[in-house]
């Protein structure tokens, strides 16, 4: 059955190219729900003991193995991907883009790459699928983005390509001393602290660019702004999660010897990014750039918490990865709704929509509260566990990172207040279409359920996190 995780995205990506234009919307949604069904089936048959369940494990060529499988961490990432893809398609239901065959095809190819990243247990296949994801998101943004998109996208491509080459070089550096690219063979290699640090930096560069972590973030605001909204949702909601997953699955377990030299370095950079991006977000006039920098601030906190390598912090990181994926898609949909109806994202030209569109005002407000992690939302428990881990690691860093709670509230409610209240700036502002209402309501209800009962996530991933954490207590670890 797991082979369907590869077959279905490829099938729908190719077959949608011959579907009549009028049927592309429904076909895309049906295809994405089919993939979601397979992921749920995989989850139901997984024995949640924390181990990796391989469904393919064969030697292939030149040390490359056909090693694919999943544990609780992989399955959670698969589920997040499989849930967000149909939400992105439904949220664009009213757009002309939704009936574009190439766009829908690229979404499925991107889903294929993401699935491959999360189930590859061979380093080279992880790299191959990592690269595959770059092509469709680049083409989506290139074909359907803003007129002035080209310079921003070339910067995005160069950044990610350079990062990927660094990761490939590091991967080859490990393989020289390993029996194969299979993850267990790679983890068995023991390096000196200095060598491990250099090789880990290769992985870190790729992940730091994709997340992004300060100062590797300069591609992000322009790319988010110039991409079509669906592309921004895919980038922020799903794609950057590959790098956070890669830190947990690959970077730290492969190089536990590098943690003494990398841990403070990465945590400090990520914490700087948390504050820097939040402050920049407060000053933005474009509401899309507000949430682009907000996204950078939130994921910086997740990256810092992962590097603490503490069980509670890791558990909170997984909750926050899910929360951020959902909320980011919702916030960028809110921006899309505003831009679609007014033709602008400039906060100075917006205002008064709460009177004209009360349903939108309510669900946008609910999303704003979820974004600032109020109690009873999944962001609250996620950020609490992450900040607890950071404070226990270093009190000063924890306090600085904790300012995200205040700064986040400032830029989020500033954007909401300027766009929804004040003088009415448009004669008409249509309230939510059923597709927009469905996506916003689904996201808000989901983050509330996960906030009230986060054990849905933690009970599923904690056994796998415990096993991954043991990497640092093995003889090859610290």
From TrEMBL:
UniProt cross-references to Pfam families, sorted A to Z: Proton_antipo_M
Q: Quick check: keyword Transmembrane helix in the entry?
A: yes
Keyword Membrane recorded:
yes
Q: Subcellular localization, per the record?
A: Endomembrane system; Membrane
| Record GO terms (molecular function) | NADH dehydrogenase (ubiquinone) activity; NADH dehydrogenase activity; ubiquinone binding
Where in this chain does the record put each NADH:quinone oxidoreductase/Mrp antiporter transmembrane domain?
121-405
Q: How does it sit in the membrane?
A: Multi-pass membrane protein
**What Gene Ontology cellular-component terms does the record carry?**
endomembrane system; membrane
Listed InterPro entries:
NADH_Q_OxRdtase_chainM/4, NADH_UbQ_OxRdtase, ND/Mrp_TM
Supply the NCBIfam families for this chain: NDH_I_M
Q: Which family does it belong to?
A: Belongs to the complex I subunit 4 family.
**Name of the protein described by the UniProt record:** Proton-translocating NADH-quinone oxidoreductase, chain M
């Amino acid at each position: 059955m797991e082979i369907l995780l590869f077959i279905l995205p490829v099938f729908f990506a190719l077959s949608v190219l011959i579907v009549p234009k009028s049927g592309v919307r429904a076909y895309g949604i049906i295809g994405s729900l089919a993939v979601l069904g397979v992921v749920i089936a995989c989850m139901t048959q997984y024995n949640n003991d924390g181990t990796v369940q391989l469904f393919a494990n064969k030697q292939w060529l030149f040390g490359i193995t056909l090693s694919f499988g999943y544990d609780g961490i992989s399955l959670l990432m698969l589920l997040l991907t499989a849930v967000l893809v149909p939400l992105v398609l439904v949220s664009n239901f009213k757009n002309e883009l939704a009936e574009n065959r190439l766009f829908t095809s690229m979404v499925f190819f991107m889903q294929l790459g993401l699935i491959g990243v999360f189930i590859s247990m061979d380093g080279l296949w992880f790299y191959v699928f990592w690269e595959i994801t770059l092509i469709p998101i680049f083409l989506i943004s290139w074909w359907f983005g803003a007129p002035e998109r080209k310079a921003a996208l070339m910067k995005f491509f160069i950044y990610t390509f350079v990062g990927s080459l660094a990761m490939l070089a590091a991967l080859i550096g490990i393989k020289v001393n390993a029996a194969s690219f299979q993850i267990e063979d790679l983890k068995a290699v023991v390096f000196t602290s200095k060598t491990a640090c250099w090789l880990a930096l290769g992985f870190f560069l790729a992940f730091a660019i994709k997340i992004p972590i300060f100062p590797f973030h300069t591609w992000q605001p322009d790319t988010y702004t110039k991409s079509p909204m669906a592309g921004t949702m895919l980038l922020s909601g799903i794609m950057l999660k590959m790098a956070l997953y890669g830190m947990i699955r690959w970077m730290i377990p492969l190089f536990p010897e590098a943690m003494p030299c990398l841990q403070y370095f990465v945590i400090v950079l990520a914490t700087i990014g948390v504050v820097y991006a939040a402050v920049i977000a407060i000053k933005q006039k474009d509401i899309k750039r507000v949430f682009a920098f907000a996204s950078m601030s939130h994921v910086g906190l997740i990256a810092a918490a992962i590097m603490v390598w503490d069980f509670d912090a890791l558990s909170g990181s997984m909750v926050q990865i899910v929360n951020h994926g959902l909320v980011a898609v919702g916030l960028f949909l809110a921006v899309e709704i505003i831009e679609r109806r007014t033709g602008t994202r400039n906060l100075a030209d917006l205002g008064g929509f709460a009177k004209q569109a009360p349903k939108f005002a309510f669900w946008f407000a609910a999303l704003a509260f979820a974004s600032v992690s109020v109690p009873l939302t999944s962001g609250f428990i996620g950020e609490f566990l992450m900040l607890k881990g950071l404070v226990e690691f270093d009190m000063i860093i924890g306090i600085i990172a904790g300012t995200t709670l205040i700064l986040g509230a400032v830029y989020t409610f500033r954007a909401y207040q300027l766009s929804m209240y004040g003088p009415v700036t448009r004669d008409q502002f249509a309230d939510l279409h059923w597709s927009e209402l469905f996506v916003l309501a689904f996201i808000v209800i989901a983050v509330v359920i996960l906030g009230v009962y986060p054990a849905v996530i933690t009970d599923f991933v904690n056994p796998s996190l415990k096993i991954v954490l043991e990497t640092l207590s093995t003889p090859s670890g610290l």
